[in-house]
Amino acid sequence: MTTLTQAVRTSSTGGTKRRRAARVRVEARRAPSAYYWMVWPAVIAFAAFHTLPVLIGVFFSFTNYAGYGAWNFVGFANYVNLFRDDRVLAAYGFSFLFAIVATILTNVLSLAIALGLNAKIRARNFWRGVYFVPYVLAILVIGYVFQFFFSNSLPKILSGIPIFRDNILTNPDWAWTAIVGLAVWQACAFSIIIYLSGLQTIPAELYEAASLDGARAGRQFWSITFPLISAFFTINIVLSLKGFLQVFDPIVALTNGGPGTSTESVTLLIFRGGFSGGEFAYQTANAVVFFIVITVVSLFQFRVLQRREADF
Amino acid sequence: MTTATSTPVQAEEALPAIPARRRRTSDDDDTRRTNWWATALIAVCSLTILVPLYLAVVVALKTPDQLVSGTGFEWPNPVNWSNFAEAWQRTNFPQALMNTAIITVGSVVFTLLTSSVVAYALARNIHRPFFKGVFFYLLAALFIPFPIIMLPLVKQTAILGLDNQAGMIVLYTIYGLSLNIFIYTAYIRSIPIELEEAARVDGASTWRVFWQVIFPLLTPMNATVGILTCVWAWNDFIMPLVVLTDPAARTLPLAQYVFQGQFNTDYTVAFASYLMAMAPLLIVYIFSQRWVISGVTRGSIK
């Protein structure tokens, strides 16, 4: 076994390309069969329950299948129709508006709270525990509590403000802000923990040196804290936006897409149209487009954010 | 050098100190004075977390008459406990709790047993084209949104007879694979390979090396993966919603959803039901708080 690991190590360090390739081939032959037995069942299961549904979805997106009965190939008709469908375009508009606002709010608020929780405060571990509570609550269930708050409590408490007095959830123009509130409320818990762990990687000596040089809190934040946690910032932004684009639970709990279809996200539309609207093929095409959109957005974000990271 | 005696000692050397404990020592330097402004601000902001929970409790303890008059935040007088009994019956709470518990425990157990094995095989052979291919294949799935799988998956699980609790366990185990392997592999590669070689010299097979040397060393990562899987499986709504067909198989979030649709004006009973659905994981969290937070931290940054 020792020789094997040595071969592995040398193969990664030196040798011409051809020799390395030859060695890799020899090693590949030598891999104990147990390793393959460890991996194959998982690969097969994953292919059967994850990749196969994806491929079936892509296949049916070129048909007019309603979810039952006979079907025919329709080529790219579903995809063309998607771009003419006002309801689909509105769902994308809502999802992006929601995701961008929620991502910004989540990251600003959680970074601020993480800074507070990282300061020398009383009962710090207790407060860290409190701020993480939303993470362990089902968002659908706590969402119903928020629904009561928005529709019954808030109108009575803020009866002087028209938007709140008339139940914000039934207001087509403002219902989305309530959904943002609920989603951010829950998402912050996880972001705070990630930022907090990022803040703890910064050595205290840096701040001491900075204060000796006369840098004040604001300057210290922009010159030390922010650059040093930028990797955590990238991860958080990408994950938040990806997660928020697929928003589902908070909408079901608060407005169920209403009033009308003003708070209908792409996921909710795919769910509704696909299961009860007889649009199986059409909404699968929508899901394929959604996948491409999410992948492009995520990769684009990574490139932009990582370039910014490198500047420091 | 036998594995049985060497493992515990080696384990402590191989593992980094538990972050929670290390953090406590580096944080609590007494050179800095308590920042009272930050403390006050953090305390005030935490009301945004505590007030909704308070609201859930007081509404659940009221009668409908008590609720109508106020904003919902007043403390009930007298306290009315009967909502819990009614919610217990109307949502068929014991069954929903049982279903959720079975799915969660099953998913956590299977996830820990399978993801770690796969990650081990991948981490130790990542230079081989086959294993590298598998690694990136699984990782790429992180980008695929659930809606794209959702519609075909429902057909598939129905045909295979997996539209039940067992099917949910299978799905959580498989769908968790991508992220879990990402979490496990980095950690496994930090475990010195000499530990395994020692066991192999003594004649242990690859499987035996894994279960007796590597798996015990993975305890911190097992905790992380276990917590993430537990919270996910317990609270998930969309997957049970589309996959489970039998009302008897309903999970807790699903029971609230159905319940809400049928009795949406009966707030006091509904809130008792919400509270009972939130309580189990909340109670577990209160008792294992620090452990949960440090576990999640490890999983998210490694």
UniProtKB/TrEMBL annotation, chain A:
PROSITE patterns named in the record: ABC_TM1
Compartments where located: Cell membrane
InterPro entries: ABC_transporter_permease, MetI-like, MetI-like_sf
Start and end residues of each stretch annotated as Disordered: 1-20
Domain ABC transmembrane type-1 residues, every copy: 92-301
CDD domains the UniProt entry points to: TM_PBP2
Membrane topology: Multi-pass membrane protein
UniProt KW keywords: Cell membrane, Membrane, Transmembrane, Transmembrane helix, Transport
Main subcellular location: membrane
Annotated signal peptide: none
Source taxon at top rank: Bacteria
Alphabetical list of Pfam families matching this protein: BPD_transp_1 (PF00528)
Transmembrane feature ranges: 35-62, 89-117, 129-150, 174-196, 221-241, 280-300
PANTHER family registered for this protein in UniProt: ABC TRANSPORTER PERMEASE PROTEIN, INNER MEMBRANE ABC TRANSPORTER PERMEASE PROTEIN YCJO
Family statement drawn from the similarity comment of this UniProt entry: Belongs to the binding-protein-dependent transport system permease family.
Protein name: Carbohydrate ABC transporter permease
Lineage: Bacteria, Bacillati, Actinomycetota, Actinomycetes, Micrococcales
UniProtKB/TrEMBL annotation, chain B:
Topology of the protein relative to the lipid bilayer: Multi-pass membrane protein
Alphabetical list of Pfam families matching this protein: BPD_transp_1
Compartments, as annotated in UniProt: Cell membrane
Family membership noted in the UniProt record: Belongs to the binding-protein-dependent transport system permease family.
Descriptive protein name: Carbohydrate ABC transporter permease
Annotated InterPro entries: MetI-like (IPR000515), MetI-like_sf (IPR035906)
PROSITE patterns tied to this protein: ABC_TM1
Statement: the UniProt record of this protein carries the keyword Cell membrane: yes
Annotated Gene3D superfamilies: MetI-like
Main location: membrane
Keyword Transport: yes
Domain named ABC transmembrane type-1: residues: 97-288
Keywords: Cell membrane, Membrane, Transmembrane, Transmembrane helix, Transport
CDD domains: TM_PBP2
Region called Disordered, residue ranges: 1-30
TM stretches of this protein: 36-61, 101-122, 134-154, 166-188, 209-234, 267-288
